[in-house]
Amino acid sequence: RMVGENIHLAIVPTEGICRVNVDRSQLQRTIFNLAINACDAMSVGGELRIAVSVIDLDHERGRPHGADPGRYAVLSVADTGEGMDDQARQRAFDPFFTTKDVGEGTGFGLGLSIVCALVKQNGGFIEVESQPGQGSIFRLFFPCADAEPKPARAGKGAEGLPGGSETILVVEDNVALLRHLITSLTEAGYAVVATESPKKALSLVQQHKGRISLLIADVAMSAVPGPELADRIRGTYPGSRVVFISGYAREDLARCGVDEGEMDLLPKPFSKEQLLRKVRVALDAASREPAEGKRP
């Protein structure tokens, strides 16, 4: 589901040519998240307009975002929906912030925070223009590849931490910890599918069209324990690895159905560096194993 029958979709290409260093699948995910957000804002219908242009960014416009001047490709996603006030606009990219009532729209409000992380990771920035009742415009600026932009300030390039482009499913019922996981992983380049509900995770796996390479889950979740969730997800992705998060002492893990010799464990508390190194080790191990007949 993307554009409803009561929403007109307009695609406006550009005559300019500009190559950008952006992963194709991540860009597709970015457009999808912005389009879903726009459609949710137009409950009674309207127009979704997606446009691409090439501009020469000057110092004045780039300074508030810490962006260098030069040629940029601009992806604009505009809607004629309900719009946002100043407070909502300033918080639009916060994980779990949403203007929707419980049970409406796409749920957790993660889409825009992921968009923000992906754009920053690729050396770009975002402008948001919106007023209540007047719709919203999201403009994503990506430096042209021939402009030799300064590398991104956030993410793996700036901090020297390992990253990647694989898709990771994150299931954690502690909202604050889930927010930290999403931010850390997306800034490192990963595509993240996230939820605080183990039951919701199972439906996300069925709906996801691409491959999920890694599951990160808390061992002790009330609805569906981490080991049980992992077993069920491995039925769909038998070659996926699993990293369990746990605050339990090692001797207590067996009570939760965890065989420590056959899993990757990330003990709480952990740093961003410990998280990213553990994730990279697990993914690299999976790439060296046959897809079938191996326990992640």
TrEMBL record:
The record's listing under InterPro entries reads:
CheY-like_superfamily, HATPase_C_sf, HATPase_dom, His_kinase_dom, Sig_transdc_His_kin-like_C, Sig_transdc_resp-reg_receiver
Q: SMART domains from the entry?
A: HATPase_c, REC
Q: Which SUPFAM superfamilies match?
A: ATPase domain of HSP90 chaperone/DNA topoisomerase II/histidine kinase (SSF55874), CheY-like (SSF52172)
Per UniProt, residues of the Histidine kinase domain are 1-146
**What would you give as a GO molecular function for this chain, any one?**
phosphorelay sensor kinase activity
Where does the record place the Response regulatory domain?
A: 167-283
Q: Does the record's keyword annotation contain Phosphoprotein?
A: yes
Q: Which UniProt keywords apply?
A: Phosphoprotein
One Pfam entry for this protein is HATPase_c
Q: Which PROSITE patterns does this chain map to?
A: HIS_KIN, RESPONSE_REGULATORY
Protein name, per record = Histidine kinase
The species this protein belongs to is: marine sediment metagenome
Q: What is the lineage of its organism?
A: unclassified sequences, metagenomes, ecological metagenomes
